[in-house]
Write a structure and sequence with these properties.
The complex is a heterodimer of chains A (423) and B (550). Chain A is built from 18 helices and 10 strands. With 423 residues, chain A is an alpha/beta fold. In chain B, helix 1 runs antiparallel to helix 3. Classes of the chains: A alpha/beta (423), B alpha+beta (550). Chains A and B meet through helix 1, helix 3, helix 4 and strand 7 of A and helix 2 and helix 4 of B. The structure holds iron/sulfur cluster (2 copies).
Chain lengths: 423, 550
C-alpha cells in the first residue's frame, strides 16, 4: 500500500471525532472517557485519527510540507489502535490505524524519520535488537535453562523472548518461568538463545517497513530450518508481529501468547495453584494482545459498490475492530489464582488505554510516554487495586518507570510473575 | 494572508506556545470537507472550508477574553468551536482564527437538588450523561449525538433530539450563561448576572437568552460562550449503564422500568394521531424515528448487521433476500422508536397501558422483531446514549438531510410519501444510496403541547466519488425546487446557504439578502442585524449569525 491508496478514506472519514473517545456506549465517567493518548496530550485535532487523515491529505495534495510539527504529529501516534476500534463502532469502510502506519512509512521513506528512531534502526542492523545492547548477550537470560537452542537443534515449539525480556534483567524472570512452564507441560520447546533476533514489530510501528520485512524474513527462515511449527511468546508486540504481520509474508506458524498457553493448561487441569497470592489487582490489556491480537484472516480483493453508493468489498473483507482479541485468557488466569481479586478499570478490553510505550513514542517522546502511563496508573488507582498486571514487557517497563517517576507505590507485575508466585 | 508576527506573538503570549499553531498541516486539519457535509450546505466535491490563520486552544475564560480583545484591536475574525460536528464551526473566510475549545472541558458542578449542571464548552453529552447518571439524573442529548458539546447544542444550534419528549430542547434547558461577547466584555446572564448562582436563564439578572442565542443558535458567530448551566432531568436507572455484548453490538439490559419499542402504523394518519396522543398522555422518555435513517428498505437489514458482530455491510444484499427481514421491513414501514421509563413500577405499568391503548385506537402495533432481547437491548442503549451517530455516514461517509418537515406531526406525515416517492425516483439515477426513498428521521415531538417533528430525509452518497457528489447536488437542487413549488419552503439541504457558499466561504451580501428577504419572517434577521450592530461592532463573527439591513 502507499499513502495515496488511502485517498478515498481521507475523503470518506466523516470527521465525526468518535476516534477521540472510547466507544461512547462504554463511557462511565468524565475522567476516563478519552481513548487516544496523542490528542489527549497534544489537543490539536491533527493529533487524532481524524486529524491524521486530514494531515495526510494535505501532504499528498501538496497543500503542506514536512515540518517539525508534521513529524511530531505523525510520530506521536502510538499505533495503539484505539481510534480504529472507536471508529468502527459505526464505520465498515475505514482503516484509520492502517492509515496512521502508512503515514509513518511515507515519512520514513522520504527521509523524515526521527533521530531517536534512526538510532534504534542502527542498533537493530548491528546488534539485532532495539535496545542498543550487544548481540552476544542476548541469550544470557536463559543461561541456566536446560532447553535446546534451535540454531543447533530442532523443536516443534519455539519460545521467543523478544528484545525487552532478553535484556531487561528486572523483567526477564518472566521469560524463564514461561519456558519452565512449557517444559513442565511436556512441550517440545526450544529457544534461539543468543541467535534470537528482534521480531521487527516495534520498528514496524515506528514506520520502518523495509527493516521489519528483512527481520521477519530472517526469522521465518530460521524457524523453518529448526522445524518450528508453533511460536510462543510473552511479549505482546512480538505476538502481534508474528500473528498479524508475518502471515502477510507467508508465515503459517501457529502463534500463542503465554497467557493463552497458561489458560489452556489451567482449563485442562494441567496447572493448579497451591499458594495463595493475597492481592487486589487490575489488568491492563496490552494493545497488541487485546484489540490488535485478533486472528489474521487472509484477504485479497477489491472495493465495490452496492445499492449505488454503499462501499463494500469483493470478496468480503475481514474486519479487525477488536471484537476478537485476547481478553479472557489473562482474566481467567487471574481469577484462578487463589487470593487474587480482580477489579476492572473503566477502559478495558478493546477500548483499553495504551501504556504509552508503543509506536516508538517511549524512545522519542519520553515525557508524553510517561504521561500516558501515568494516566493508566491513575485509572488503576481508582479501582482500589494494589497492583497493575499486564502481559507485555513493554507495558510493564513503561508502568514501572512511570510509577517510579511519580513516586507511587502501585505494584506492577507481568501476569506470569503472579503465576509463579502461586505455583 | 498569514497573521503578522507581532499578532501571532501576542496570541501566543496569551495561550502559551503549545496551544497555538499556524503550521499549514495543522490548519488543514481544521478544514471541513463540503463533499461529505454533515449539515446542510453541500455537497461540493473537493471543497473545504477556508484555512484559518491560526488555531488556538484557550484554557480559560480569561484567555478567551484576551484573545477576543486582541482580535478587536487588530480586526481579526474568530470562530470558536467545541466538538466540530459540522461546517458551522469552521472559518468562513480569510483573516479568521480558529478557537478550539476542547481544553475547556470541565463539568464544574452538578447541582443534584436543583437538577442542573454547570459546564464548559468541551463537555460532551456522553461524559455529562455518565456523571449525571451517578446522581440519578440525565441530560438531553441533541440529535447530533453524545459526541457533541452540550454547551454548543444549547447556545449555538437547535439542541433538538430524541429526548425532547421528556428532556426538552436545549434552548429551553439553557440556564445561566457566561458569555465573552464579540467585543471582549464578559456578560453573565440570568441569575448569574445578579450574583444568585446558575439556576435560571431569564433572571433575576439580564434576560439575554434570545439575544445571545439568536435565531436557532449563535453558531460560533457572536463571541464565545465559555460556561453555561444546563437543566438535567430524572434518570430512573442504574448509576452506570451495565453494557454487555461484543463490539459493535453493545447492548444494555436495564430493569423492567425501561422498555424500547418500535411501533408501526397502518397509515400516516394513524402515525400522526399516535404522536399527538403520546404528547397528550405525557408518556415516554424519548421518542424518535431513528433507524429509518438507513432507509425504509434497508433499516431492518442494517439492524441485523449492527447487532451481529460477525456481520458487515458486505452482508447487506444477502440479508435483504431473507424473507424474515423482508417481512419485518414491510411491517415497520411507518414506524418510530419510543423508550418508556417508569419512575415507579406503577408509573411504568400505566405508561405501558397507555401505549397499548394508543396502539389500539390507532390500529398500530409493536414490531415484535425489535423486541428480541439482543435487538431490544441494543436499541435501548443506542437511544439512551446516542453514541452511534456516525452511523449517519455508515454507507460511504457522506450524508445530508433534505426537505426537513418542521411542524406538527400531521404536517410531515401529509407529505412524507410524496417526498419519498420523489427521492425514490432520484435514487434510481445512481448518485445516491438506493434505500427506499423514505429515509426520514427525526423526533416525534419537539415541543410541549402537541409535538413538533423535524424530519430530514437522509441522503447518502460517496464524498470521494465526483459523480455521486454532483448527482447529489443536482438532487438537492431539485428538492429545493420541489419544496418551493409545494409550499414546504427551502429544505434542510439549503438551510445554511446564506452563511456559506459552494466555495466554502461566506456568500456575497446580495445573495444573503436575497435569501433572507425570501424567508417567511425577514424581520428576524433585521432584529439580529440590530443586535449585531450593538454587540459586534467590528463584525468579527461570520454570516452564521444571520442579518438583514433595514
Ligand atoms: S493509534 Fe492510538 S495514538 Fe494513534 S491516533 Fe489512534 S488512538 Fe491515537
Ligand atoms: S477516523 Fe473514523 S471516528 Fe475518526 S473522524 Fe474519521 S470517521 Fe470519525
Amino acid at each position: 500500500m502507499a499513502l495515496e491508496d488511502f485517498a478515498a478514506e481521507m475523503d470518506r472519514c466523516s470527521q465525526c471525532s468518535y476516534c477521540k473517545w472510547i466507544p461512547f456506549d462504554q463511557v462511565k465517567s468524565w475522567r476516563f472517557a478519552k481513548n487516544c493518548p496523542s490528542i489527549a496530550y497534544h489537543n490539536f485535532n491533527s493529533y487524532s485519527a481524524r486529524g491524521r487523515y486530514a494531515v495526510a491529505r494535505s501532504l499528498i495534495k501538496g497543500q503542506s510540507g514536512y515540518s517539525d510539527t508534521v513529524r511530531k504529529i505523525v510520530f506521536t501516534c502510538m499505533t495503539c489502535g484505539s481510534c480504529d476500534v472507536s471508529c468502527k463502532v459505526c464505520r465498515y469502510n475505514l482503516e484509520p490505524l492502517e492509515m496512521a502506519r502508512e503515514l509513518k512509512f511515507r515519512l520514513v521513506e522520504d527521509g523524515q524519520g526521527l533521530d531517536e528512531h534512526q538510532a534504534i534502526i542502527e542498533s537493530l542492523n548491528k546488534e539485532h535488537n532495539t535496545l542498543g545492547r550487544p548481540r552476544a548477550e542476548r541469550g544470557a537470560w536463559a543461561d541456566d535453562l536446560d532447553v535446546p537452542r534451535l540454531y543447533a537443534d530442532k523443536a516443534e515449539v519455539l519460545f521467543h523472548a523478544g528484545c525487552r525480556f532478553s535484556y531487561d534483567r528486572e523483567l526477564q524472570g518472566v521469560a524463564r518461568t514461561a519456558v519452565r512452564l512449557l517444559k513442565q507441560a511436556g512441550v517440545d520447546v526450544g529457544i534461539m538463545g543468543q541467535r534470537e533476533m528482534c521480531c521487527g514489530g516495534r520498528v514496524y510501528s515506528m514506520g520502518y517497513r523495509e527493516t521489519f520485512t528483512r527481520f521477519a524474513q530472517a526469522n521465518l527462515k530460521a524457524w523453518d530450518r529448526a522445524g518450528v511449527k508453533t511460536v510462543v511468546t510473552s511479549c505482546a508486540d512480538g505476538y502481534h508481529a508474528f500473528k498479524r504481520l508475518y502471515p502477510k509474508l507467508g508465515s503459517q506458524v501457529e502463534v500463542l501468547h503465554t497467557v493463552e498457553f497458561i489458560a489452556r493448561l489451567i482449563k485442562e487441569g494441567q496447572l493448579t495453584f497451591r499458594t495463595a497470592v493475597p492481592l487486589t489487582v487490575t489488568y491492563h490489556d496490552p494493545c497488541h494482545l487485546g484489540r490488535q491480537g485478533e486472528p489474521y484472516v487472509p484477504w485479497e480483493g477489491v472495493e465495490k459498490k452496492i445499492k449505488n453508493q454503499i462501499v463494500v468489498y469483493e470478496p468480503r473483507r475481514p474486519r479487525y475492530n477488536g471484537a476478537w482479541g485476547v481478553y479472557d485468557p489473562p482474566r481467567d488466569i487471574l481469577r484462578s489464582i487463589p487470593g487474587v481479586e480482580l477489579v476492572e478499570m473503566e477502559r478495558i478490553r478493546e477500548y483499553s488505554w495504551c501504556c504509552g510505550a508503543g509506536g516508538g513514542v517511549r524512545e522519542a517522546y519520553p515525557e508524553f510516554s510517561r504521561w500516558t502511563a501515568g494516566e493508566r496508573i491513575e485509572e488503576a488507582r481508582a479501582t482500589g487495586a494494589e497492583a497493575l498486571v499486564s502481559a507485555c514487557p513493554w507495558c510493564e517497563r513503561n508502568f514501572k518507570d512511570a510509577v517510579k517517576a511519580l513516586g507511587d507505590s502501585l505494584q506492577v507485575y507481568d501476569i506470569v510473575e503472579l503465576v509463579q508466585k502461586a505455583m | 494572508m498569514t497573521l503578522a508576527r507581532n499578532v501571532y506573538k501576542a496570541l501566543e503570549d496569551i495561550v502559551g506556545p503549545e496551544n497555538i499553531s499556524d503550521d499549514p498541516a495543522v490548519l488543514d486539519s481544521y478544514r471541513y470537507s463540503l463533499a461529505h457535509t454533515a449539515i446542510h450546505i453541500g455537497p461540493y466535491y473537493d471543497t473545504f472550508t477556508p484555512r484559518g490563520e491560526a488555531v488556538l486552544l484557550p484554557g480559560s475564560t480569561e484567555e478567551v477574553q484576551a484573545i477576543v480583545k486582541l482580535c478587536n484591536k487588530y480586526k481579526i475574525k474568530f470562530k470558536a468551536s467545541s466538538t466540530f460536528w459540522s461546517a458551522q464551526g469552521y472559518p468562513s473566510g480569510e483573516n479568521t482564527i480558529q478557537l478550539d475549545m476542547r481544553r475547556m472541558d470541565r463539568i464544574l458542578e452538578i447541582d443534584e437538588k436543583n437538577m442542573f449542571a454547570v459546564i464548559e464548552p468541551g463537555v460532551i453529552g456522553a461524559t455529562l450523561q455518565a456523571e449525571a447518571m451517578k446522581l440519578g439524573l440525565n441530560t438531553h442529548l441533541p440529535g447530533s449525538g453524545c459526541s457533541c458539546s452540550i454547551l454548543a447544542g444549547a447556545t449555538s444550534y437547535f439542541g433538538s433530539g430524541p429526548s425532547n419528549l421528556y428532556g426538552g430542547w436545549h434552548y429551553d434547558n439553557l440556564l445561566a450563561l457566561e458569555w465573552v461577547m464579540p467585543t471582549g466584555e464578559i456578560l453573565r446572564t440570568g441569575s448569574l448576572g445578579a450574583g444568585c448562582g446558575w439556576f435560571c436563564g431569564e433572571g433575576p439578572g439580564p434576560s439575554m437568552k434570545g439575544v445571545a442565542r439568536g435565531f436557532l443558535g449563535a453558531k460560533g458567530a457572536m463571541g464565545v460562550f465559555t460556561k453555561c448551566a444546563i437543566k438535567l432531568f430524572a434518570w430512573p436507572g442504574p448509576q452506570t449503564l451495565p453494557v454487555e455484548g461484543t463490539i459493535p453490538a453493545y447492548r444494555v439490559s436495564l430493569p423492567d422500568n425501561f422498555k424500547a419499542y418500535t411501533v408501526a402504523f397502518p397509515s400516516w394518519r394513524a402515525w400522526a394521531d399516535a404522536a399527538h396522543m403520546i404528547w397528550d398522555a405525557g408518556i415516554g422518555y424519548l421518542a424518535h424515528r431513528q433507524f429509518n435513517m438507513f432507509g425504509r428498505d434497508l433499516k431492518f437489514a442494517m439492524i441485523k448487521i449492527l447487532t451481529d458482530p460477525t456481520k458487515t455491510l458486505g452482508d447487506l444484499e444477502e440479508l435483504l433476500e431473507d424473507p424474515e427481514v423482508q417481512k419485518v421491513t414491510q411491517e415497520s414501514m411507518r414506524d418510530f422508536q419510543i423508550v418508556l421509563a417508569g419512575m415507579t413500577r406503577r408509573d411504568m405499568a400505566w405508561q405501558e397501558k397507555v401505549l397499548d391503548e394508543i396502539l389500539r385506537r390507532t390500529g398500530g402495533w409493536k414490531v415484535e422483531a425489535m423486541n428480541e432481547p439482543e435487538i431490544h437491548d441494543w436499541a435501548l442503549l443506542y437511544l439512551i446514549r446516542l453514541g452511534h451517530k456516525n452511523l449517519n455516514l455508515v454507507y460511504a461517509g457522506g450524508y445530508d438531510g433534505c426537505f426537513g418537515f418542521l411542524g406538527a406531526p400531521d404536517y410531515g406525515t401529509t407529505y412524507v410519501e410524496e417526498a419519498a416517492e420523489f427521492k425514490r425516483e432520484w435514487e434510481k439515477r445512481g448518485a445516491i444510496v438506493e434505500a427506499g426513498g423514505d429515509c426520514m428521521m427525526g423526533p416525534i415531538g419537539g415541543q410541549g403541547g402537541g409535538g413538533t417533528c423535524l424530519w430530514e430525509n437522509f441522503t447518502c452518497f460517496d464524498p470521494h466519488d465526483k459523480d455521486s457528489v454532483e448527482g447529489t447536488l443536482e438532487f438537492f437542487d431539485a428538492c429545493t425546487e420541489l419544496g418551493l413549488k409545494r409550499g414546504w419552503g427551502v429544505g434542510m439541504e439549503k438551510w445554511n446557504a446564506a452563511a456559506r457558499g459552494p466555495d466554502g466561504r461566506t456568500p456575497p451580501k446580495e445573495e444573503r439578502d436575497r435569501i433572507h428577504l425570501a424567508a417567511p419572517q425577514p424581520s428576524v434577521f433585521r432584529y439580529q442585524h440590530r443586535v449585531k450592530e450593538a454587540l459586534n461592532p467590528n463584525d468579527l463573527g461570520d454570516a452564521y449569525y444571520e442579518t438583514l439591513e433595514d
